[in-house]
Amino acid sequence: MDALKTLEKTTTTTTTTKARYLAMFAVALAIASPVGAQETREEQLASYKAKKATELHPYEPSRLESRLEHVERFDTTLFSPGPAYLFVGTTFDGGGIAAGPGYRARFRDTGSIDAHAAWSIRNYKAVDGTLKLPTMFSDRVGVEMRANWIDAPAVAFFGTGNGSLKSNRTDFAYEAKTVGVAARIQAAEHFAVGGGLDVIDIATDITSQAASPTYQRNHVFAEYDWRTSPGYTKRGGLYRVDFSDYRQSNAGTSSFRRIDAEAQQFVPLMRENWVLAFRALASSADTTDGNDIPYFMLPDLGGSQTLRGYSAWRFRDRNRMLLTGEYRWTAGPLVDMALFMDAGKVASRFGDLDLRDLKKSYGIGMSVHTPISTVTRIELARTSEGNSLVLSFSPSF
Questions:
Q1: Which residues contact 59 (CB under 8 A, 6 or more apart)?
Q2: Where is 292: in which H helix or E strand?
Q3: Is pLDDT above 70 for 193?
Q4: Distance (Å, rounded) from C-alpha 374 to C-alpha 329?
Q5: Which end of the chain is more exposed for a tag (fewer CB within 10 A), N or C?
């Protein structure tokens, strides 16, 4: 019996010892497994990175990105490189396309100087220079000084009034020298006010006392602008009012005041693939007793910006209004097409600016652009006086 008890005790002890060893082995395995798995994942990740490194290559832009980059480079190297560049544009309404040398430089981050000379296909000449001082007060205040000279040997005049005839056209020589300073205050994110002082010396070949006035012009403005860019936009709007006081400083009675109001609205549709664009413009000029406004200083309609299809300066009078509607659509990555209609009139009295006897034009156009600027705009316009091809280097509005 003693032997049997000893055997059972030994067997129990051996079993207990094995169980302890199995438990210890299980715990060790449980602890070691996550560590081993983690080491395996790290090894796999390192292997993947090493393999990926052998497959790296420079980023290749898509065809669309390449085209956008090309056009933007064209816009900044042909029209606005630094310091020397080729100016292409216009000198004065009615002068046609012009070109000439230009110089541009920047200083102190936000300061710039820009000057160019241009000669048009119709022998119009211009020299223009602008000096923008570095902005102040957290970029909220800007000051610029400007000087220009214009020589236009054949400016069109068809008479005054909405009923002027195309057959009554005469031409006169116009030369103007202007120097001035202006300031702009960005009062809020989209709201700005400003003003300036200019001296304008005008000479014409008209045989009258009002032919060569010299003006001191004081002007102020207020605007709310939430377009993405003034040069090209698909949404937002612009609402602006300008007031100018032209005081004749040499002998004569040609002093007057002028106010201009403009509203633009852009409504995007279908993720900005379509855009409805609207514009309304009104201007009014008046004088004190004993003064009169030279006809070459009257508000006007006609040309590539107002009442397209009619000749530049086609209609002149003391008051004008213009209504424009456009349906624009994306024809390509850098090209927009548009159907447009303009309607406007001029009148001697502001109260006569109604919807009767409007001069109308309509047509189709194409514009080449970058994301922030219009490079070229070509339009075919139809008016009561015939068809016309319009070429411009700025947006219609």
A1: none
A2: none
A3: yes
A4: 15
A5: N
DSSP string, 138-156: TTTEEEEEEEEEEEEEEEE
Q: How far apart are CA 359 and CA 317, in angstroms?
A: 14
Please list, residue by residue across 349-360, b when 16 or more beta carbons sit within 10 angstroms of its beta carbon and e when fewer do: ebeebeeeeebb
Cβ atoms of residues 310 and 343 within 8 Å? no
With beta carbons less than 8 A apart as the criterion, state whether 277 and 352 touch.
no
pLDDT of 123-164, one tens digit each? 999 999 999 999 999 999 999 999 999 999 999 999 999 999
Tokens of 327: 């349906």
pTM score: 0.79
Strand (E) or helix (H) holding 175: strand 170-186
Written as one letter, the residue type at 359 is K
Which residues, 6 or more positions from 282, have their beta carbon under 8 angstroms from its beta carbon?
A: 260, 261, 262, 319, 320, 321, 322, 353
What does the alpha-carbon distance between residue 113 and residue 147 come to, in Å, rounded to a whole number?
Answer: 12
3 state SS of 304: coil
Token pair listed for 136: 């102040």
The 3-state secondary structure of 39-80 reads HHHHHHHHHHHHHHHCCCCCCCCCHHHHHHHHHHHHHHHHHC
User: What is the DSSP track for 313-359?
Assistant: T-EE-SEEEEEEEEEEEEEETTEEEEEEEEEEEEESSGGG-SSSS-E
Q: What is the dihedral of CA 231, 232, 234, 239, to 10 degrees?
A: 10
Q: Which two tokens stand for residue 224?
A: 């709310």
By the 10 Å C-beta count (0-12 exposed, 13-18 middle, 19+ buried), 277 is classed as buried
Q: What number of other Cβ atoms are within 10 A of residue 128's Cβ?
A: 19
Residue 194 in contact with residue 220, Cβ under 8 Å? yes
Rounded Cα–Cα distance for residues 322 and 307 (Å): 7
